């Protein structure tokens, strides 16, 4: 498939796949908690309803930050599927997240403020591991270009087992799943209220939701890269990682930020960096 | 040739003139005229085709004698300072250095080396541009700032503005001399002038704290000076040469030890671990001094020297140790910046951290690393200078340099707040300057020593945290405040707007700049050059365009949006940022950032930095000897 075709497929199909995955997440979580759960398509119904709601804001400009968050997330995913430089993709993703955080700061309510602050801590927690993942892939394949990494002959995960585990750990934080749902709880009746998204409503909240779908697909695409030489295995593993993340979400309670940051950096230092050390000794 | 000499001499002479001017208006005229002339001079130098440096118009012997005389006077002054302050380490360092140089002059005598004493290549042109444009901006800003400093903000401080401005320009002239000098004793002369200028400027207010910190800066930089003197003597006695270019091209055997000593000197001047405390202490001086020390002069002299020597140390254990010092400094500086709410201190830690990255590049010393290092110097200089100057303005209006007090700055000082946001975005976000450089550094590190990347990945995560929480504080609005009517004076606004535009243009046109200056320099030294690749540059430009659209979206501000009060977990009180809680009592809302007090501790971090840095520097010198 040519990069441009892949790009278009991503732009069209990612929200559909992401939405279905999200609906499926809610269904499976419900079953794990002995509930029936909503229909698989519920996230789409939610977004459509949000789209029709009145536009409320504390500060009108807060919505623009979210708009640019959305645009940059889509842009990041597009770069990824077009086969661009992996480091560039990470930096674009970070910039996108920062727009989201700044929007929450702009909203200036205590709950969104604390959510923004904690989201920053989460970014700080997962970013080293994500960067080390890119570095590990580069050390094995000698290229930062995603196209080149995907066409590398062997299974990357064999050379990068520590990096892979660390990356899954980072994904848990990136998806804001328990035990790392510090910045935004899924249920608004807790002490955080909704954290970072507390003050967003209507279309803006819908955009955040759709951006999250795009993000999910792109991050699972990254999991696929570890198994790219065997496409079937790659898809299975990407879905498997998603199931694992959902399972962990239901099993754990929320950690304090100190524990979240500490554990994430420890995992990065031991699994991620340890793997890098082994690779550079082998050279 | 004339142009180069003029760039060095005009600021020095202007300094002497300013020393005699007590009135405000003539001083302002002189500052504006000289700054303008220097900027034009730098740009002209950059635009001229390759320079052919001829012989000096005066005999080199006479110049050497003049320099020796000035050096002797400076040495005596420093001795006097050391004796008066009962600081005998200063006396000892100064005597050792003077003895060494005196002995060197005595034994080497007037033997003239054939190489030209001055040298201009693309790298020195880049440094000259930074020094002229950024340094010039600071001098302009200082005119307005110091007037307000003495008439409003700090009436108790004795008004010694003639000396202050004289020192600013002497500093600038010395920095020009430093980047153009090739003969090591000349370089050393300008090096010592910057040390002395920074000592005097840090101690400007003459408070006990200022004096103490000035002495700290002096003693640390003198130890670097001693290393520099040792390098000169050692190199001369082994090769009978004195040129910096000669040193770079004389191969590992002869050059490694002097290069290690010079790197040591560069590390002291660039305030790397274990010497970072002097730059933090320098914060007591008025803001233009901090801006000058942090962006265009002083610390940049240190990293300039380390980057120049990169081809010598690359691939050696000495280089690895230099890189380690830089890496550790980057990580610890970034973490330390999280812990403090004081704006200038955050900026200082971030400077130390970013210089650590440049030193890391210098230590690695591959062509990619040097390319990234030069890029870092440029972006850091403009963005950091802008931030310091903005903080200075805010400090005068709010009488506080605490970040927590800047809450809602975007509403009551919108111009300054936007400029600060530009500076911070330039320091931390893709697709702006510093991030491009960090990207380049990461690639260079992974190709040379992948294990060193651990410092960069953790350090840059910490960097992001402290910048964005500060940005958040600026945009967040809780209690409406009266807008400040006159945010900035004329001189200040010329400097601030000018620097904002330069930051912006530097980000937008960096591929061009890289092609014209950095790539030719790197190619000249290594034969091939680093870059990020055409496709990536294009994507960066696209991304830049997307982000640039962001301010445009404010045009349709408020359309179709219903403004409501935030959710506070109680009944909102109309017209105030408070709510009625469950007990019927009214509560006000205040928002505070995280400083991670329980996890990170500035004092502890600095102890680690000193111990680690000292260990690695000692290892570096040992490796250089064996």
Strand pairing plus helix content of chain A: what structural class?
Answer: mainly alpha
What Rg of chain A do the Cα atoms give? Answer: 18 Å
* Radius of gyration of chain B using CA atoms only: 24 Å
- Overall average residue pLDDT of chain A: 91
Shape annotation of chain A: globular
Tell me, rounded to a whole number, the average pLDDT of chain B. Answer: 86
Name the helicity range of chain B: over 70%
Shape of chain B: globular
Give a written overview of the molecule.
The complex is a heterodimer of chains A (283) and B (626). With 283 residues, chain A is mainly alpha-helical. Chain A has one domain (3-278). Chain A is built from 11 helices and 1 strand, in the order H-H-E-H-H-H-H-H-H-H-H-H. Chain A is globular, with a radius of gyration of 18 Å. Chain B has helices spanning 2-19, 24-47, 60-84, 88-108, 122-153, 161-180, 184-202, 208-239, 244-248, 251-269, 277-281, 287-296, 299-308, 310-313, 317-338, 343-364, 367-398, 409-412, 414-428, 433-448, 453-475, 490-508, 510-526, 534-553, 602-625, and strands at 562-563, 571-572, 578-580, 586-588. By secondary structure, chain B is an all-alpha fold. Chain B starts with a helix and ends with a helix. At the A-B interface, strand 1, helix 3, helix 4, helix 5 and helix 11 of A face helix 20, helix 21, helix 24 and strand 1 of B.
List the helices and strands and how they pair.
The complex is a heterodimer of chains A (283) and B (626).
Chain A: H1 3-32, H2 42-51, E1 56-57, H3 62-81, H4 86-107, H5 110-141, H6 146-150, H7 156-159, H8 161-174, H9 202-225, H10 231-251, H11 257-282
Helix pairs in contact in A: 1-3, 1-9, 1-10, 2-9, 3-4, 3-9, 4-5, 5-8, 5-11, 8-11, 9-10
Chain B: H1 2-19, H2 24-47, H3 60-84, H4 88-108, H5 122-153, H6 161-180, H7 184-202, H8 208-239, H9 244-248, H10 251-269, H11 277-281, H12 287-296, H13 299-308, H14 310-313, H15 317-338, H16 343-364, H17 367-398, H18 409-412, H19 414-428, H20 433-448, H21 453-475, H22 490-508, H23 510-526, H24 534-553, E1 562-563, E2 571-572, E3 578-580, E4 586-588, H25 602-625
Antiparallel strand pairs in B: 2-3, 3-4
Helix pairs in contact in B: 1-2, 1-6, 2-5, 3-4, 3-7, 4-8, 5-6, 5-12, 5-17, 5-22, 5-23, 6-7, 7-8, 8-10, 10-13, 10-25, 12-17, 13-16, 15-16, 15-21, 15-25, 16-17, 16-21, 17-19, 17-20, 17-22, 17-23, 19-21, 19-22, 20-21
């Amino acid at each position: 498939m040519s990069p441009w075709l892949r790009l278009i497929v991503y732009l069209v199909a990612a929200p559909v796949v992401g939405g279905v995955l999200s609906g499926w997440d809610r269904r499976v979580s419900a079953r794990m908690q002995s509930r029936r759960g909503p229909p698989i398509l519920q996230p789409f119904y939610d977004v459509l309803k949000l789209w029709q709601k009145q536009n409320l804001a504390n500060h009108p400009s807060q919505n623009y930050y979210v708009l640019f968050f959305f645009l940059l997330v889509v842009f990041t995913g597009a770069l990824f599927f077009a086969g661009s430089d992996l480091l560039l993709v990470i930096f674009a993703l970070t910039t996108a997240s920062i727009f989201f955080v700044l929007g929450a700061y702009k909203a200036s309510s205590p709950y969104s403020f604390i959510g923004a602050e904690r989201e920053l801590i989460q970014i700080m927690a997962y970013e080293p591991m994500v960067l080390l993942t890119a570095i590990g892939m580069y050390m094995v394949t000698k290229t930062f270009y995603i196209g080149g990494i995907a066409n590398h002959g062997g299974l990357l995960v064999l050379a990068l087992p520590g990096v892979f585990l660390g990356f899954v750990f980072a994904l848990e934080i990136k998806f804001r799943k328990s035990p790392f749902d510090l910045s935004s709880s899924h249920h608004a009746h807790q002490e955080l209220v909704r954290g970072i998204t507390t003050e967003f409503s209507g279309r803006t909240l819908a955009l955040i939701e759709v951006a999250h779908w795009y993000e999910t697909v792109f991050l699972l695409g990254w999991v696929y890269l570890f198994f790219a030489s065997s496409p079937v295995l790659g898809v299975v593993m990407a879905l498997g990682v998603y199931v694992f993340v959902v399972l962990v979400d239901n099993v754990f309670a929320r950690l304090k930020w100190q524990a979240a940051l500490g554990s994430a950096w420890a995992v990065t230092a031991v699994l991620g960096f340890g793997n890098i050390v082994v690779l550079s000794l082998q050279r | 040739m004339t142009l180069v000499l003029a760039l060095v001499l005009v600021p020095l002479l202007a300094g002497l003139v300013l020393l005699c001017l007590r009135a405000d208006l003539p001083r302002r005229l002189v500052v504006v005229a000289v700054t303008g002339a220097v900027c034009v001079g730098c740009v002209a130098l950059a635009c001229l085709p390759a320079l052919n440096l001829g012989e000096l118009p005066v005999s080199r012997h006479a110049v050497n004698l003049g320099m020796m005389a000035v050096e002797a006077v400076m040495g005596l002054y420093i001795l006097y300072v050391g004796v008066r302050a009962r600081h005998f380490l200063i006396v000892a360092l100064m005597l050792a250095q003077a003895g060494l140089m005196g002995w060197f002059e005595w034994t080497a005598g007037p033997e003239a080396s054939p190489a030209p004493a001055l040298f201009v290549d693309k790298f020195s042109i880049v440094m000259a541009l930074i020094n002229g444009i950024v340094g010039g901006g600071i001098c302009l800003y200082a005119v307005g700032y110091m007037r307000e400093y003495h008439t409003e903000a700090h009436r108790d401080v004795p008004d010694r503005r003639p000396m202050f401005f004289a020192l600013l320009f002497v500093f600038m002239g010395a920095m020009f001399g430093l980047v153009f000098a090739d003969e090591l004793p000349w370089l050393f002369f300008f090096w010592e002038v910057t040390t002395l200028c920074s000592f005097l400027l840090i101690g400007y207010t003459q408070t006990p704290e200022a004096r103490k910190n000035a002495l700290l800066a002096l003693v640390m930089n003198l130890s670097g000076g001693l290393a520099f003197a040792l390098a000169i003597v050692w190199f001369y006695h082994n090769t009978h040469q004195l040129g910096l270019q000669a040193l770079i091209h004389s191969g590992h055997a002869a050059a490694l030890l002097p290069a290690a000593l010079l790197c040591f000197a560069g590390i002291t001047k660039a305030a790397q671990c274990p010497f970072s405390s002097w730059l933090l202490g320098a914060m007591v001086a008025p803001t233009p001094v901090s801006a000058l020390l942090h962006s265009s002069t002083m610390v940049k002299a240190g990293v300039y020297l380390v980057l120049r020597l990169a081809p010598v140390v690359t691939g050696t254990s000495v280089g690895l140790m230099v890189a380690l010092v830089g890496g550790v400094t980057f990580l610890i500086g970034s973490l330390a910046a999280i812990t403090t709410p004081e704006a200038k201190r955050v900026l200082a830690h971030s400077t130390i951290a970013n210089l650590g990255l440049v030193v890391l590049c210098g230590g690695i010393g591959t062509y990619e690393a040097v390319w990234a290092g030069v890029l870092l110097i440029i972006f850091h200089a403009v963005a950091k200078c802008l931030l310091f100057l903005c903080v200075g303005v805010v400090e005068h209006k709010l009488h506080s340099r605490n970040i927590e007090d800047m809450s809602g700055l975007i509403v009551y000082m919108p111009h300054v707040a936007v400029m600060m946001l530009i500076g911070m975005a330039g320091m931390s976000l893709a697709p702006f300057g510093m991030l491009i450089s960090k990207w380049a550094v990461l690639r260079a590190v992974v190709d040379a020593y992948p294990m060193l990347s651990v410092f960069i990945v953790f350090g840059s995560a910490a960097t992001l945290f402290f910048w964005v929480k500060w940005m958040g504080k600026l945009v967040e609005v809780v209690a409406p405040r009266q807008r400040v009517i006159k945010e900035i004076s004329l001189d200040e606004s010329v400097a601030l707007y000018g620097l904002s535009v330069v930051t912006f243009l530097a980000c937008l046109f960096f591929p061009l700049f890289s092609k014209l200056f950095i790539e030719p320099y790197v190619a000249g030294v290594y034969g091939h050059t680093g870059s990020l690749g055409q496709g990536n540059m294009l994507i960066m430009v696209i991304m830049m365009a997307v982000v640039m659209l962001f301010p445009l979206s404010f045009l349709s501000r408020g359309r179709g949006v219903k403004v409501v009060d935030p959710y506070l977990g109680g009944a909102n009180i109309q017209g105030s940022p408070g709510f009625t809680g469950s007990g019927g009592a009214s509560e006000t809302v205040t928002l505070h950032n995280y400083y991670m007090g329980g996890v990170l501790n500035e004092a502890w971090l600095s102890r680690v930095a000193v111990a680690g840095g000292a260990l690695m520097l000692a290892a570096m010198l040992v490796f250089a000897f064996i």
